[in-house]
Specification:
Elements: H1 5-8, H2 14-27, E1 33-34, H3 46-57, H4 70-84, E2 93-96, H5 98-110, E3 116-121, H6 126-133, E4 137-142, H7 153-159, E5 164-170, H8 182-192, E6 199-203, H9 219-222, E7 230-235, E8 248-251, H10 254-265, H11 273-284, H12 288-308, E9 324-328, H13 330-335, H14 342-353, E10 355-356, E11 358-359, E12 368-372, H15 377-391
Parallel strand pairs: 1-10, 3-4, 3-5, 5-6, 6-7
Antiparallel strand pairs: 2-8, 7-8, 9-12, 11-12
Helix pairs in contact: 3-11, 4-11, 5-6, 5-10, 7-8, 12-15
Bound molecules: glutamic acid.
Glutamic acid is lined by residues 13, 15-16, 37-39, 100, 124-126, 174.
Length: 392
């Protein structure tokens, strides 16, 4: 079948591919423990589900405005004010089918052929592909565990060219789990304010999943002068265990948001009205459910960190947030014959230990694997036992 050049240049999402593979093996009766997808294992809180049922029962089942129901957008405006101390008006907000669609729309709305997008590596698997789908070029800015996988002002400055049009910033990071703190953001912000044409795409989807009482900061909190050039990307999936509801949102300059709206009007029309009602309830509800979930993630992270680091050839620093352990497996690859890279190790773990993880190369960092701890402690204990059995 003849397909477009665009699609032959696009990779399938590695996180989704690995999760599907795990699911297929489970359907065949294999006892796979899937640590591949970044998806909360908790159920969506009851009050959120009730809001969706009420929406169905009261007939809120029709198209909504392209950019989202006004009362949901108002709830998002309030969220930014109360949680982030940021001021937006409703026309600066768009509701999309997941944060992913907001990122996609943003790239479609602002990038052209020849534009460069700086992506700190390791990165979430979909960033480069979404950038390529908008004809722009992803430029990877490599980081190491020495800087907690974060770029510095100096590295950023050296990476900027005349063609740079966007920086993708993700904190807490998927896959590294590290957070850009106030000092990091100040340093980066001081560089970016000299380049007003560079859009800062701030993917804040893990903002609530932070451990050890650390605080989330958006770059605008430390550099308010970046307001016009920053677009915040967020959603309810991770914080409220609502991945399947597909509600994300973006906030930024009204011209950019209007352009994103135009794209949405010609692609999805709007996102699901029922899910929007649920998202409104989520944002207006209490934060207790979130903190209960985050406490659990933290316990799991502590367990994984202490147990995995006991395995010869494995090392990694404890993540500060998100629900991923981004584990250096260099020593394991070196000591086990027949395993030459992180892909082969992930395959080995799947076949021999029946544990699904995602190879680090998919995130731009070979010799690592990403382990999601968005699964029960029992599952993690079982997975660690299996990994120890085969890796010794
Ligand atoms: N963002 C999650 C992950 O990295 C969900 C899957 C996806 O869309 O990539 O696993």
């Amino acid at each position: 079948m003849k397909l477009s050049k665009r699609i032959s240049n696009t990779k399938t999402s590695a996180t989704i591919a690995m999760s599907m593979k795990a699911r297929e093996l489970m359907a065949k009766g294999k006892d796979i423990i899937s640590l591949s997808a970044g998806e909360p294992d908790f159920d969506t809180p009851e009050y959120i589900k009730k809001a969706a049922i009420d929406a169905i029962n009261t007939g809120n089942t029709k198209y909504t405005p392209v950019d989202g129901m006004l009362n949901l957008k108002e709830a998002i405006v309030k969220k930014f004010k109360n949680e982030n101390n940021l001021n937006y008006s409703a026309d600066q907000i768009i509701v999309s089918t997941g944060c992913k669609q907001s990122i996609y729309n943003l790239c479609q709305a602002t990038l052209d052929l020849g534009d460069e997008v700086l992506i700190p590596s390791p990165y979430w698997v979909s960033y480069p592909e979404i950038v390529k789908l908008s004809d722009a070029t992803p430029i990877f800015v490599n980081t190491t565990s020495e800087t907690d996988f974060k770029i510095t002002g100096k590295i950023l400055e050296e990476s900027i060219t005349k063609k740079t049009r966007m920086l993708l910033l993700n904190s807490p990071s998927n896959p590294s789990g590290f957070i850009y703190n106030v000092e990091d953001l100040k340093e980066i912000g001081d560089v970016l304010k000299n380049y007003p044409d560079i859009i800062i795409a701030s993917d804040d989807i893990y903002e609530h999943v932070i451990f050890n009482n650390k605080k989330f900061t958006n770059i605008q909190n430390v550099c308010p002068e970046l307001y016009d050039q920053t677009v915040i990307l967020n959603g309810v999936s991770k914080a409220y265990a609502m991945t399947g509801w597909r509600i994300g949102y973006a906030a930024g300059h009204v011209d950019i948001i209007s352009a994103m709206k135009k794209i949405q009007s010609q692609s999805t029309s709007c996102t699901c009205s029922i899910a929007q009602s649920a998202a409104k309830a989520a944002l207006e509800g209490g934060r207790k459910e979130i903190s209960d979930m985050v406490k659990e993630y933290e316990i799991r992270s502590e367990f994984l960190h202490s147990e995995l680091n006991k395995i010869e050839g494995i090392s990694y620093k404890k993540p500060e947030g998100s629900f991923y352990a981004f584990v250096n497996v260099d020593g394991v690859i070196n000591r086990i014959s027949g395993i030459n890279d992180d892909f082969e190790l992930a395959e080995y773990l799947l076949n021999k230990a029946e544990v699904a993880v995602v190879p680090g190369t998919a995130f731009g960092s070979p010799n690592h694997i990403r382990i999601s701890f968005a699964t029960s402690l029992e599952n993690l204990q079982k997975a660690v036992r299996r990994i120890k059995n085969i890796l010794g």
